[in-house]
Design brief:
Shape: globular
Subcellular location: Lysosome
Enzyme class: hydrolase
Number of strands: 10
Protein name: Lysosomal Pro-X carboxypeptidase
Bound molecules: 2-acetamido-2-deoxy-beta-D-glucopyranose
CATH class of the largest domain: Alpha Beta
Largest sheet: 8 strands, mixed
Radius of gyration: 23 Å
Structural class: alpha/beta
CATH superfamily of the largest domain: Alpha/Beta hydrolase fold, catalytic domain
Distance between the termini: 61 Å
Subunit structure: Homodimer.
CATH architecture of the largest domain: 3-Layer(aba) Sandwich
Main location: other
Order of helices and strands: EEEHHEHHEHEHHHHEEHHHHHEEH
CATH topology of the largest domain: Rossmann fold
Strand order of the largest sheet: 1-2-4-3-5-6-9-10
């Protein structure tokens, strides 16, 4: 149903590469009412080895998943902490990993899930920041440790939003691959899939999108023929699913759609581990296996496609069968769907010219699916715009938005400078938040420059942090109307 979940990438290679302590802070279940005084323990990871006690706090605003995954995959933060004398903190988003407001009841139904929202999560983070700042002198903020927020994907949206909403607590934000414009009326719904199509137009095979486009009717035809599903299961070596025939068909089509997205997001210049290990530039490898001369023979076309899928599902050659069950085990996919059904409604569709089957955005259907699944339809699809301002963010400051242009989510990202203080950094050959990952010798120049830019921005923010207060005081004196 929600095939376009905001998946960030779990390139979980080198587990245990970074060391930290795991801690918990008690935070309110509901920050926005006085009717519920319950609290729960929010998990965060902390490393103070590089911290100079006056130094900044590098605060990762956790996304929709186990926070340890983000700590492992945000090497950039670890690599620069020493130079900045920074305290490293990765905060877990409520309702993911171990941060469950109602323990094992948290995900039962809307009565418990109802406290899941980006605004509650941001308030959790502010609670934690306030706790971490060693000097809580609210009269003179320049004494407190400055905080720089970092985040990728949904976490990047949170990093940008926490700076906008709580500028007193967060000095600046590095928001990587953060599609804050992926909401109703801000970005055409087909943009995401159009970008995917262009990513699949690789130099090794310009016909790749065309062949993929041709594969959908072929698949439909095979799946509707008497033994077609059986044939496909055996040709593609699918793990034998127990579901009914109808749901298998949907499963195959949905899974395939997700694979195209995931391959593009993980289109990194070096081999990486995403669900299963992937080669460098996996999209190129995938497309190499599709042959134009076979498009008119369904058997050959789908056999080619099955071979190409091996790049995604069997790069190691060790997979016995292809598991089309949604297998993003590290991320709370179901939990994200609740967010997508309430606050994070991101219209998606595919147009005539992309490589996907044409599909309109149908809010009525979306809403009905949400109601059925969670007992709660989106109250209003523009809720996130009401909360965060949509494209009207010119009053914001100290944010760097970075986007890899090969990342389908870049379509909903901030791609142009908003003001001298809200900057857009483009990484033409980058995939999904590549810049937050650790250094790799195969990194393209553009991502190396982006990382340099981030550091310059942070340095600049830190430099003005203490002086700004004085400037503000002098402004206040000049504006003394009395
Ligand atoms: C902090 O991280 C560094 C680098 O990974 C590591 O050497 C150090 O032991 C860590 N410190 C703590 C307290 O975990
Ligand atoms: C929370 O509220 C309940 C009743 O409304 C009260 O009995 C309890 O003491 C309160 N707990 C705290 C920590 O304030
Ligand atoms: C989170 O990831 C760690 C590995 O980093 C794993 O040990 C743990 O079981 C995971 N927890 C949850 C709740 O998924
Ligand atoms: C939830 O946890 C409690 C205590 O830890 C346990 O007794 C109960 O069976 C669990 N419930 C579910 C649905 O897992
Ligand atoms: C959620 O489940 C709890 C416990 O089973 C129940 O008391 C409550 O009424 C349910 N809420 C909804 C909205 O279904
Ligand atoms: C693929 O790229 C080539 C140029 O590299 C362009 O001429 C062609 O129109 C593109 N095809 C699609 C389907 O976008
Ligand atoms: C389709 O399945 C039936 C029953 O399993 C079998 O008898 C028949 O030979 C199959 N046909 C083809 C074309 O594979
Ligand atoms: C498709 O190709 C296969 C293998 O070359 C061949 O046996 C079959 O007859 C072809 N089908 C059509 C419809 O051309
Ligand atoms: C994975 O690759 C190996 C080696 O090429 C092959 O034997 C195996 O059948 C493949 N598994 C699947 C599911 O295709
Ligand atoms: C796929 O998911 C279904 C339903 O959750 C489960 O019954 C089945 O065993 C799973 N299959 C595989 C291969 O994991
Ligand atoms: C949208 O979905 C609803 C419910 O599934 C359906 O009745 C309606 O015809 C659809 N609208 C369009 C424009 O496809």
């Amino acid at each position: 149903m929600f095939k376009f979940i905001l998946v960030f990438l779990l390139i979980n290679c080198n587990y245990g590469k970074y060391l930290y302590q795991t801690k918990f802070l008690s935070v309110p279940v509901d920050h926005f009412s006085f009717a519920n005084n319950a609290s729960f323990k929010l998990r965060y990871l902390i490393n103070d080895t590089y911290w100079d006690s006056n130094g900044p706090i590098f605060f990762y605003t956790g996304n929709e998943g186990n926070i340890t995954v983000f700590a492992e995959n945000s090497g950039f933060i670890w690599e620069i902490a020493d130079t900045f004398g920074a305290l490293i903190v990765f905060a877990e988003h409520r309702y993911y990993g171990e941060s469950m407001p109602f323990g094992n009841k948290s995900l039962i139904n809307n009565s418990y899930l109802g406290y899941l929202s980006s605004s509650q999560a941001l308030a959790d983070y502010v609670y934690l920041i306030d706790y971490l700042q060693s000097n809580k002198n609210y009269a003179d903020y320049s004494i407190r440790n400055p905080v720089v927020a970092f985040g990728g994907s949904y976490g990047g949206m949170l990093a940008a939003w926490i700076r906008m909403k709580y500028p007193a607590f967060v000095l600046g934000a590095i928001a990587s691959s953060a599609p804050i414009y992926q909401f109703q009326g801000l970005t055409p719904c087909e943009t995401y899939n159009d970008i995917l199509t262009s990513v699949y137009n690789v130099s090794s095979n310009n016909n790749c999108p065309y062949i993929i486009k041709k594969s959908w009717p072929a698949l439909r035809q095979v799946l509707s023929s008497p033994n077609g599903t059986e044939w496909l299961i055996s040709t593609w070596k699918l793990c034998r699913p127990i579901q009914s025939k109808e749901s298998i068909d949907t499963l195959i089509i949905d899974w395939l759609t997700n694979v195209y997205s995931n391959l593009a997001m993980a289109n990194y210049p070096y081999p990486a581990n995403f669900l299963a290990p992937l080669p460098a530039y996996p999209v190129k490898e995938f497309c190499r296996k599709l042959k134009l001369e076979n498009i008119n023979n369904i058997t050959l076309l789908l056999t080619d496609l099955g071979n190409a899928l091996q790049v995604y599902s069997n790069f190691t050659g060790k997979s016995e069968c292809l598991n089309i069950n949604s297998s993003t085990s590290d991320i709370g996919e179901d939990v994200w769907d609740y967010q997508a059904c309430t606050e994070m409604v991101m219209p998606m569709c595919s147009g005539k010219f992309g490589m996907f089957e044409e599909e309109r955005w149908n809010f009525t259907k979306y809403s009905a699916d949400c109601e059925k699944r969670f007992g709660v339809p989106p109250i209003r699809p523009d809720l996130a715009i009401l909360e965060y301002g949509g494209k009207d963010i010119k009053s914001a400051s100290n944010i760097v938005f970075s986007n890899g242009l090969m990342d389908p989510w870049s379509g909903g990202g901030v791609l142009q400078d908003v003001s001298p203080n809200v900057r857009a950094i483009l990484i033409p050959d980058g995939a999904h938040h590549l810049d937050l990952r650790s250094y790799n010798e195969l990194d393209p120049k553009s991502v190396i420059s982006a990382r340099k830019f981030h550091q310059q921005a942070i340095r600049h923010w830190l430099k003005t942090y203490k002086t700004e207060n004085l400037e503000l005081n002098s402004v206040n004196i000049q504006n003394n109307y009395a």
